[in-house]
Recover the amino acids of this structure.
């Protein structure tokens, strides 16, 4: 398939040089407090309120834009290599996406490894999805980043299969940023982009995969959506930076979906690092990417389409 290519602006080039210098001392470090502190720097979106809650028995945070329709919701699965991250730390970033889409979003605190190994994260994601359906949301749209992006694609496949058997509603769409789709770590860019990537290292991902999976097969489609059946998925959009070691995780997954005849968009951003959209207010590309993601979600929501005609 042919990806949509986005150029690197001169202003972002200068800013990225500063970000790289700042990130260099902690490259490949997996530490929960430090990770949360970084993601918490995403600025708040205007008009979005945040509220702690629980869905499907899993606690998390709601981000609600003013005027959001009551019948549609985003389920946001946060990143952190299955060992880091929290819904609280992600509130502002999720709020930015909720604002761009005009939809309320729930980010669950799914269980993390090594305390809770595979398939705990998958089970929690499914519980939240079912819980949103029980709350009478007629539309559910899936969004996630990094490991949460891979988990989003796993959930998209599971929920779509359940919908085909009449057990629940199908997700309307899935949008993921820098998804980790291959916990077997076979992508060529793990090596070719190792120097360019300012944040991740193959060793760090190997450590996280071991903590999450233990001795379980990393090619299990419930852990690595790259090895799953791509048939029957909802429309999918992937955003990925060209300077990250997970670039091939995005490209290979998109190619598999395209070969199966699926509705897939792959957006590659020159010079951008892992989950660059979180850098709203710092990188111009981040604002553009979040706006693009919001448009994609609105386009695939019949409810927001109806709202726009009122």
């Amino acid at each position: 398939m042919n990806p949509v290519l986005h150029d690197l602006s001169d202003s972002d080039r200068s800013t990225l040089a500063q970000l790289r210098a700042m990130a260099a001392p902690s490259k490949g470090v997996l530490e929960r407090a430090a990770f949360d502190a970084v993601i918490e720097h995403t600025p708040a979106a205007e008009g979005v309120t945040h509220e702690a809650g629980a869905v499907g028995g899993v606690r998390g945070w709601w981000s609600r834009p003013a005027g959001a329709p009551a019948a549609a919701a985003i389920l946001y699965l946060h990143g952190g290599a299955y060992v880091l991250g929290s819904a609280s730390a992600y509130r502002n970033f999720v709020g930015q996406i909720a604002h761009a889409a005009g939809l309320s979003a729930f980010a669950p605190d799914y269980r993390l490894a090594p305390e809770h190994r595979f398939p705990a994260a998958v089970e929690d994601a499914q519980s939240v999805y079912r819980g949103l359906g029980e709350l009478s949301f007629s539309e559910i749209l899936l969004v996630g980043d990094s490991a949460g992006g891979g988990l989003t694609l796993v959930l998209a496949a599971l929920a779509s299969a359940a919908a085909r058997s009449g057990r629940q509603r199908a997700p309307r769409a899935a949008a993921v940023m820098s998804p980790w789709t291959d916990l077997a770590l076979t992508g060529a860019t793990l090596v070719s982009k190792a120097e360019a990537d300012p944040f991740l290292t193959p060793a760090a991902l190997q450590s996280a995969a071991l903590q999450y999976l233990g001795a379980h097969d990393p090619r299990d489609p419930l852990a690595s959506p790259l090895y799953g059946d791509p048939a029957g998925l909802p429309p999918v959009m992937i955003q990925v930076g060209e300077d990250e070691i997970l670039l091939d995780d995005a490209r290979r997954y998109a190619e598999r979906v395209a070969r199966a005849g699926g509705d897939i968009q792959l957006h590659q951003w020159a010079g951008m690092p892992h989950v660059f959209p979180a850098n709203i207010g710092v990188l111009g590309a981040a604002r553009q990417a979040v706006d693009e993601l919001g448009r994609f979600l609105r386009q695939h929501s019949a409810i927001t389409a109806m709202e726009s005609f009122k």
About this structure: Residues 56 and 127 are 5 Å apart (CA to CA). The chain has a mean pLDDT of 96. The two ends are 37 Å apart (CA to CA).
